[in-house]
TrEMBL record:
Chain residue ranges for the region called Disordered: 1-22, 308-345
Name of the protein described by the UniProt record: Alpha-carbonic anhydrase domain-containing protein
Species assigned in the record: Mythimna separata (Oriental armyworm)
A GO cellular component annotation in the UniProt record: cytoplasm
GO molecular-function term, one example from the UniProt record: zinc ion binding
Gene3D superfamilies cross-referenced by the UniProt entry: Alpha carbonic anhydrase
Polar residues bias locations: 320-330
Basic and acidic residues compositional bias, start-end: 1-21
Length: 345
């Protein structure tokens, strides 16, 4: 056998160089995704402001199935944060349009808060920190799970709602906070609701910020994440925010704060997608009346109304289902009948 030279072995073991990505045309959604390669490793959270952001046009963001009641909603005190996870018997809520090139399904929701009303939010807006922040995780449906999707730069998106101080309590948070007394200890969970996610999430189709940055896990792993910060906000009364601080950490002490330290923006892009409202402030004021839902039923639900939970069915859907059940039961064949009788049935 002919001996191989060391140069040949080195040449074989040398990994193939990754071809440089061609920059997509400006104005496309692919151009937004392109910057994940260069800015996805930058630290988060950062300060957000209209000043210095890049105005960019995208299709309207569409929300599907957020009015559909889940089968169950679980509220968990992990000891470090508060997590809301929901299950649907059929199709989950998802997002399309906006900066997304594909469907992103809802995964889970968690919160950040501080020891007083002057701190708590992960992000700051116009150099101001707010009492809290709700972060909603979505992942690309093709990856099937969040654990798999987070390995890819187009896999996971985090929508971050700032929580302002309000004199009156926010009804959207009230049905979540109702379960807090049952999960005061770390590593405990309870059921709440269930109510559709439109009862908690302010939905928007325009007027939001987007940037790229890394998410670092407790194990030290780092992943590129797309961060969306809408100008629409939640709000909470003093007593509502106080309930968050009553939750215990793993050492059976009140978990007074869990927000992360602010990071430098560096030279990354902050996209300001489809500006619409008055731009005097980077966040919109607290709405006087609840915004109407803009959720859309997906094609699967429209084509198969029986997939909807009872709370979402109309009288027509219920009567059609009853008729179908009756017709199905009348067509049951007696196994002891003769072949002639079966054919006539």
């Amino acid at each position: 056998m002919e001996a191989k030279s060391s140069e040949e072995f080195v040449a074989r073991e040398k990994p193939l160089e990754k071809e440089p990505t061609v920059e997509p045309p400006y104005g496309t959604r692919e151009w937004i995704q392109y910057w994940s390669e260069f800015e996805g490793h930058l630290p988060t959270p950062i300060n957000i402001s209209i000043t210095g952001s890049l105005v960019y046009k995208c299709p309207d963001l569409k929300w599907f199935n957020f009015d559909v009641y889940p089968h169950k909603v679980k509220l968990t005190n992990t000891g470090y944060t508060l997590v809301i996870s929901s299950k649907w018997r059929t199709e989950r809520p998802y997002l399309l349009g906006g900066p997304f090139l594909e469907k992103h399904v809802l995964s889970q929701i968690h919160f950040h808060w501080g020891a007083n009303m002057m701190e708590g939010s992960d992000h700051t807006v116009d150099d101001r920190r707010y009492p809290g922040e709700m972060q909603v995780t979505f992942f690309r449906s093709e990856y099937l799970t969040q654990e798999e999707a987070i390995k890819y730069p187009d896999g996971v998106t985090m929508i971050c709602y700032l929580i302002k101080y309000g004199v009156n309590p926010d009804d959207r948070l009230a049905w979540v906070i109702e379960g807090f007394p049952r999960i005061q200890e770390a590593q405990t969970h309870t059921r709440i609701g269930p109510l559709p996610m439109s009862r908690l999430l302010p939905m928007f189709y325009e007027d939001y910020f987007l940037y790229w940055g890394k998410l670092e896990t407790v194990a030290g792993e780092q992943y590129a994440i797309k961060w969306l910060i809408p100008r629409a906000v939640l709000f909470a009364s003093f007593d509502q925010m106080k309930q968050f601080r009553k939750l215990w950490d793993p050492w059976d002490e009140p978990n007074l704060r869990n927000f992360r330290p602010l990071q430098e923006r560096e030279n990354r892009h902050i996209f300001y997608i489809n500006p619409h409202w008055c731009q005097y402030n980077s966040l919109l004021p607290i709405p006087r009346i609840p915004e109407p839902s803009i959720s859309i039923l997906s094609h699967n639900y429209l084509k198969n109304p029986w997939m909807l939970p009872p709370q979402n069915r109309t009288e027509e859907d219920t009567s059609a289902q009853e008729t179908q059940n009756k017709s199905g039961s009348s067509a049951v064949v007696d196994p002891l009948a003769s072949p002639t009788q079966r054919d006539s049935t």
